[in-house]
Amino acid sequence: MINADTIAAPITPLVTSPVITLRISGSDALKVYSLMEKGGKSINISDIKSNYVSLYRFNIKKENLHDDVLAVFFKAPHSFTGEDVVEISFHGNPVLVNAALSAIYSLNIRPAEGGEFSKRAFLNGKIDLTQAESIQELIYAKSIEGINSAYNQLQGSLKYELDSIKNRLLKMKAVMEAKIDFPDEDTVDEELPVLKQDCENILSVTGCLISSYKSYRNANRGLEIVIAGKPNVGKSSLMNAFLKEERAIVSDTPGTTRDFIKESLYIGGIPVHLTDTAGIRLSDENIEQIGIGKSRQKIETADIVLLLLDVSIPLTEEDYNILEDTKNSNRIIIGNKLDITDNKSYDKADIYISAKTGINIDELLEILREKTSLYDNEIKSNAAAITERHHNILINIKEIIEKINLSLGIYPIDMLCIDLERAINLLSEITGDNYTEKVLDIVFSSFCIGK
């Protein structure tokens, strides 16, 4: 036990709902049964069985309120926090539950701070720091793969991978330290190819974990997809076709869209932020120039660019300029207006459609699903770095291992051992085997009350 005090808080939203559940954790958790009765009789604490749900009457004498509740006791260390825990489910009236909380706090039980239940679980050795962080990520994940990645981490997938890396580094360090202790033996020289291979293997794993962070973030924050092209090429019509509603104004007048329009939807199970931009062309109008400038910025930062071409007319200088500007983008080149032409002569187009009538829109969506699945597939493995903290530390570890790999056989062994120790300590910082209060504050400060 690392805390002498007992804490309580709602673990479900404190809003009008069918049920609101409170959690009480700490050595005095069983005191809350003094507020309950069963069959008109007070509860004898010695009769309470762990892991059994029972129906009680909860009495709030100050307000003369009562409720029929379900309560369950988890005896330490077999609970989420590793402490004695009681969870009580009330009818979901916030006024009632607030009154119940006041009665509970009167028993020398204090309100829990944000993330304090999870923090206690970590400090009591029930979960490591990556698992604690996965709780937050699991709750707020916005895609199926995001949920799966967070759940896998909650089950210890990332810790397992990091522990595997740590064990390799410890073995490397042991080989190098043997050379320091026995300088006359050729331990390192004989093991040099193996040590270099170990470095390569570790770099491969850390590289995959670093890449998985971007994929996970994309899958959860949503991919930015920008519809681009010259004016009057059908961008707004394509936006409406995706949304299946008249969201963007469609007009034959070039330059109608002066600012970008943004909407969100799901493609292939991944959240997508779709942006209809102002048409890009040479213009003397100040307001239109501002819109065109914003369009170029959106294109530069987009994950995917949908570049529309009007194939009912020959390509113009504006088309060629946009094709050149987006050549380094992850783009899909779309020939539009098949409803008024059958021209498919532009050989670089990935697909031909009619945004107005819906011709080949489903086929375009299928291409987009394939594109989004590339982000999806990078986080399908069990282990993934799902927080910025993991990502930044892994980058530091990768840089250290790269340095060691290049320095083997060149720099003194004792210097390389220092670098190895740094990498090992950084791995321990991710899992929480080594931690500071500052690290815990960073991790748990974003948790809300009840976690």
TrEMBL record:
Binding site for Mg(2+): 236, 257
Gene3D superfamilies with a match to the protein in the record: P-loop containing nucleotide triphosphate hydrolases, Probable tRNA modification gtpase trme, domain 1, tRNA modification GTPase MnmE domain 2
PANTHER family registered for this protein in UniProt: TRNA MODIFICATION GTPASE GTPBP3, TRNA MODIFICATION GTPASE GTPBP3, MITOCHONDRIAL
Keywords attached to this entry: Cytoplasm, GTP-binding, Hydrolase, Magnesium, Metal-binding, Nucleotide-binding, Potassium, tRNA processing
Catalytic activity, EC: 3.6.-.-
Protein function: Exhibits a very high intrinsic GTPase hydrolysis rate. Involved in the addition of a carboxymethylaminomethyl (cmnm) group at the wobble position (U34) of certain tRNAs, forming tRNA-cmnm(5)s(2)U34.
Cellular compartments per GO CC: cytosol
Cofactor: K(+)
NCBIfam families documented for this protein: mnmE_trmE_thdF, small_GTP
HAMAP family, sorted: GTPase_MnmE
Species whose genome carries this gene: Mucispirillum schaedleri ASF457
Entry-linked SUPFAM superfamilies: P-loop containing nucleoside triphosphate hydrolases (SSF52540)
Record-level GO BP terms: tRNA methylation; tRNA wobble uridine modification
Chain positions recorded as (6S)-5-formyl-5,6,7,8-tetrahydrofolate binding sites: 23, 87, 126, 451
Binding positions for GTP per the UniProt entry: 232-237, 251-257, 276-279
Highest taxon above the source species: Bacteria
InterPro entries: G_TrmE, GTP-bd, GTP-bd_TrmE_N, GTPase_MnmE, MnmE_dom2, MnmE_helical, P-loop_NTPase, Small_GTP-bd
Subcellular location: Cytoplasm
Entries under Pfam families matching the protein: MMR_HSR1, MnmE_helical, TrmE_N
Oligomeric form and interacting partners: Homodimer. Heterotetramer of two MnmE and two MnmG subunits.
Protein name (database record): tRNA modification GTPase MnmE
